[in-house]
């Protein structure tokens, strides 16, 4: 009993108990497909970030802090709101830490760089990414509050997934070749209608759009298009993605 008590006390004093508990909570929040690989990556990032280093030590450089912040942002899917918000707050804290050569706080330059990394590499067209960043980024030397940071990161994460879903839709419409333009236009109209509910916050609008573009909604839109019985040209995948992403970006409210 005494030996077991000594071992437990050692783990507690060394901070291992709290560290393992935090890691397990992250696994439960993110629910990854490969939990063991997730834990290995988690502890590797923890070591590289300098957790448990000497008090007062200079924080990691900007590239390391950006990489760590991006890792936090991608730990949990944006639909898992509590976990996602918690991880975004950790990313914000990671980028806001001061050092010998910088004051605490997050400026627009670093914030914009993180947003670009959330979007890239990714399926969203370049023009859609640029248009979204213009709406949610801040001036280079402007202080970025947490709520603005969270909104920008969430918008970029949703655009990334939205574009991926749009690409999968196009592939389903076209099979192995270009998709019929009538079908593409019908799906884009259905998508625009699904995104038209301005009373819902951005993620909810995205989820509502996904529901309306389920098998029944798609079948109805495609049936209406095919009833026209007109010859139709093809629409390229790039054009479809560009138009779909533009519909989404148009609904994002710019940062004040």
From TrEMBL:
Residues 64-253 form the Tubulin polyglutamylase complex subunit 1-like C-terminal domain. Pfam families: RIIa, TPGS1_C. Residues 26-46 form the RIIa domain. Signal peptide: none annotated. Transmembrane segments: none annotated. InterPro entries: cAMP_dep_PK_reg_su_I/II_a/b, DD_TPGS1, TPGS1, TPGS1_C. One of its GO terms (molecular function) is microtubule binding. This is TPGS1 polyglutamylase. It comes from Crypturellus undulatus.
């Amino acid at each position: 009993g005494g030996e077991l008590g000594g071992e437990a006390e050692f783990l507690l004093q060394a901070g291992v108990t709290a560290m393992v508990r935090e890691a397990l909570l992250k696994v439960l929040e993110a629910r990854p497909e490969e939990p063991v690989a997730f834990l290995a990556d988690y502890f590797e990032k923890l070591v590289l970030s300098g957790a448990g280093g000497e008090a007062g030590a200079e924080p990691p450089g900007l590239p390391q802090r950006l990489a760590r912040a991006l890792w936090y942002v991608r730990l949990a899917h944006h639909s898992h709101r509590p976990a996602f918000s918690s991880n975004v707050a950790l990313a914000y804290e990671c980028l806001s830490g001061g050092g010998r050569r910088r004051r605490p706080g997050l400026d627009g330059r670093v914030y914009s760089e993180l947003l670009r990394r959330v979007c890239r590499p990714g399926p969203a067209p370049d023009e859609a990414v640029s248009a979204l960043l213009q709406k949610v980024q801040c001036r280079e030397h402007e202080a970025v509050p947490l709520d603005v940071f969270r909104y920008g990161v969430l918008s970029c994460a949703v655009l990334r997934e939205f574009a991926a879903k749009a690409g999968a839709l196009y592939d389903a419409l076209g099979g192995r070749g270009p998709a019929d333009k009538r079908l593409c236009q019908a799906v884009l109209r259905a998508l625009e209608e699904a995104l038209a509910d301005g009373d819902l916050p951005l993620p909810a609008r995205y989820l509502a759009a996904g529901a309306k573009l389920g098998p029944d909604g798609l079948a109805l839109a495609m049936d209406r298009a095919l009833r026209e019985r007109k010859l139709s040209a093809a629409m390229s995948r790039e054009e479809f993605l560009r138009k779909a992403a533009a519909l989404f970006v148009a609904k994002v409210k710019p940062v004040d």
